Amino acid sequence: MTRRAFLAATAALTAGPAMARPDWIVPPEEAPHQRTFMMWPQSRQVYDDAVFLDIVQDTIADIANTIAAFEPVTLLAHPDAHAAIRQRVSSAVELWDIPTDDLWARDAGPLFTKNAAGDLAVSHIRFNGWGDKQTHLHEGRVAADVAGRLGLDLIESGLVGEPGGVDHDGHGLLMAHESSWVIGNRNPGLDRDAIGRRLLAAYGAERILWSPGVRGQDITDYHIDSLARFTGPGRVLINLPDEPDMRDPFHRAAHETHAVLQATGLDIEVIPEPNIRRINSPDFVASYANFYVCNGAVIAAQFGDSETDAIAADALARHYPGREIVTLNVDALGEIGGGIHCATQQMPA
């Protein structure tokens, strides 16, 4: 069998079930937003180092203030923290009395869906702390609390997991790593096809592309939004190391995902990971793909490698013409396994 035929066969095996698009659809991230939701990290059960917690909070405030120059930002936090937060964020950042433990709004926050009439609802994927790996006393209720405050219906997906574990183009196509979904600490008793059907319904999509991912090596079980992102219908941006170490399970899985996406005929652009980093920890997540698209801008990470930082910014400018590309030092989030996309969740206009 030729390599091309092998990859085509692989794609056929990894593609999930197809379905007709329902009335409710999660719009693409680049569609107009009403606002961005973010969450304030403050739990000392999660952050036992007060100095590092302060650095993480500064990073979240910086991201919120940056996005607020382009669209409204709503920051969720326990009311006891509001006075201190107000000193760190601009007046364009609104504070809501919805308690949080940590900052990962992409995973615990509300996933908004929209119907043809323009009505909004929350497509509810239940958050359980990435398979009960982290306390989520407040986080498990955030999506429902936001829906209640907005007066929106909560549409149950029948899934436990995190929206950061699936990416969508808003035009019928999803991609995900099996490792984040087909796992006993999220969805025991459900096989990949059953989970795929529920994800398609939750997003209003037609087809899902699966690749294996990596189980048990990080808290998310390898969320795909730190590797590959749709930037438009059938178009993907993926970051891969220039010199992969195939002894590294993440490098192997990243190349497996790239092969699956290639075999489907998608328009794929590969950008490198940074070769020079301010943080050299092996657990540091240096993902250019973990960017966030807001009204008029793309908010992305820079890691201190002038060459690859520029390559990533140039690629984002090509994929999102007419938007300002704003890059930030978010190393504190990389140290705890995430990035800007992980810390944000859009509310469609």
Q: Distance N terminus to C terminus?
A: 49 Å
Global structural class:
alpha/beta
Low-confidence stretches: 1-13
Mean pLDDT across every amino acid position: 93
Order of helices and strands: HEHEHEHEEHHEEEHEEEHEEEHEHE
Which descriptor suits the 3D outline? globular
Relevant CATH superfamily:
L-arginine/glycine Amidinotransferase, Chain A
What about the largest sheet? 4 strands, mixed
Write structural notes for this entry:
- The protein is an alpha/beta fold and 349 residues long.
- It has one domain: L-arginine/glycine Amidinotransferase, Chain A.
- Helix content is 29%, strand content 23%.
- The protein contains 10 helices and 16 strands.
- The strands form 5 sheets. The chain has a 4-stranded mixed β-sheet.
- Helix 1 packs across helix 8.
- The longest helix is centred in the N-terminal third of the chain and has 19 residues.
- The protein is globular, with a radius of gyration of 19 Å.
- The protein starts with a helix and ends with a strand.
- The N terminus is likely disordered.
Label this structure with key terms.
349 residues; alpha/beta; L-arginine/glycine Amidinotransferase, Chain A; 4-stranded mixed sheet; 3-stranded mixed sheet; 29% helix; disordered N terminus
